[in-house]
What does this fold into?
Amino acid sequence: MSVASLLWRFPSVLMAWRNLGRNRLRTALAALGIVIGVVAICSLGMATVAIEQQATAQLGDLTNEVTVSSGPDSETEGVTEEQVEEMRAIVTDAQVIPQKTNGTTLEARNGREARVSVTGVTDASALYDLTTGPAPERLQSGALISNGTAERLGLESGDPVEYDGRIYRIRGFIESEHSFGFGGDLVIPVSGLADQRHYDTVTIIAADGDAAGRIGDRLDTRFNTEEDEELRVSTFGNRAQVGGFLDTLSLALLGIGGISLVVASVAILNVMLMSTVERRGEIGVLRAVGIRRGEVLRMILTEATLLGALGGLVGALVSLATGMVLFHVITGDATGALGWASSRYLVYGFGFAVAASVLSGVYPAWKAANESPVEALRG
It folds into this structure.
């Protein structure tokens, strides 16, 4: 059965379809407004999902960490060995990893230089992921260097790097750089920073964000009072807090996109009003030959519905392409846009477009259906 024969079964739908085709420019402009609104809503929603997935992946390794450093009321410049041992006695269900840090400039054989953060640590496997193979659980010789720094300096596995007059052979390359304010990371045995008496930071890795919060509270209670802060204990919050923030961000962005669709709805209302005014005589003839008010009402509402469906469908397709580009840029995986968490915004955008169009057509349809045929024919 063809579309034309199907439409013949529904006269009001057929007339609405013909009316939309009689002024294609006006129909296209009205549909364009809906497309813009749908793309705004869907793209912002999908971008929020991509940001949430990327943030969860990146913060997942931080939310279960507690960082301890010397507090403003401490008598020592750093965390002492005694304090580290006391932490280990208090925290029996998590790893306690003390670190000493410094900075230096590495110089390669080709003359290139790079500023790096130097970290002295024993249990490197708990803090670093390497590009190939696991990091050593007890780093007692050799060094690890961030992959980006190694590429800039042209360093390969086994090449020597010098720090404080000592030579270390590179044993592995760190996937991502952790340092702030430096160009990369150089990780060496803690004995390489033996001149520094105390530890700069202590990282405690718990099972999850909630456990990290409880450990932070216990350490804060043990070492600090309301007046004195001997140790500064920092946590990064749990994933629920991160998710709550991103949900708020998502609602804000959807609100901005919704404004675009409301503007598009006003444009549809204007188009439908103009259409009914231009066809006032035609509607008067229809009423004069016996077409009932309900038929006229359905015809105008069907026009608005078709406009919303057409604009919503095109807007959803454009949004899907835009979402795949956003996912590719933010997460590196364009197919993430096809997941329900992201693609549900296409359904929301389409449904919102149809609903807004129908609501925009209610007043013009009511006005056209209730006008007297005699007054309509007089113009």
Q: What stands out?
A: The longest strand covers residues 95-107. The mean pLDDT is 81. DSSP finds eleven helices and nine strands in the chain. Strands lie at 65-70, 95-107, 113-120, 143-146, 160-163, 166-174, 185-188, 201-205, 231-235.
